[in-house]
Design goal:
This protein is of the alpha+beta class and 152 residues long. 32% of the residues lie in helices and 26% in strands. The chain is flat and about 50 Å long. It starts with 15 loop residues before the first helix and ends with a strand.
């Protein structure tokens, strides 16, 4: 979990990302065959997100991991099966590959900002000079995700 340096620290002194890692680690303690994770990478930076992905792939063998996410790239990377909910109802279910074939596959651009204070409006305006239409999918922490048109 990359928390060795914090082994003698109280939970309240950990950063948000460290608390997220700790709760994920706790979910796997005891060797449960089924683990539920609610948005395990929410609020963590890109690098921590990738670390968590590697950890989940490592502990995936011989167990069922059910996770929720708003990030399709995360579902695509981690899941064998994906269920898409709309207004609380299951509207699609299948392998990530099959779902991408059914719906026009869309491309996303993920930008890692150096600072939280970087003005995303400037980035979006600059991209729009080359590609339109684009849609801002998410801007969490220092990560900006933009949906690009599929016809390019």
């Amino acid at each position: 979990m990359k928390l060795e340096a914090k082994r003698n620290s109280f939970t309240k002194t950990l950063s948000g990302g460290q608390k997220r890692r700790l709760s994920i680690g706790m979910a796997f303690v005891g060797g449960s065959q089924m683990v539920f994770l609610d948005e395990p990478t929410s609020g963590v930076d890109c690098s921590a997100r990738r670390d968590i992905w590697q950890l989940l792939k490592k502990y995936k063998e011989n167990r069922v991991i059910v996770l929720t996410t708003h990030f399709m790239d995360e579902a695509d990377h981690l899941a064998d099966r994906v269920g898409i909910l709309n207004c609380g109802k299951l509207v699609r279910y299948g392998s990530p590959h099959r779902l991408k074939q059914q719906a026009c596959m869309r491309y996303t651009l993920t930008i890692a900002k150096k600072h939280r204070k970087v003005d995303t409006a400037i980035i979006l305006t600059r991209i729009k000079t080359y590609i339109e239409p684009i849609v801002e999918e998410s801007c969490v922490g220092m990560q900006l995700i933009i949906r690009l048109p599929s016809d390019r």
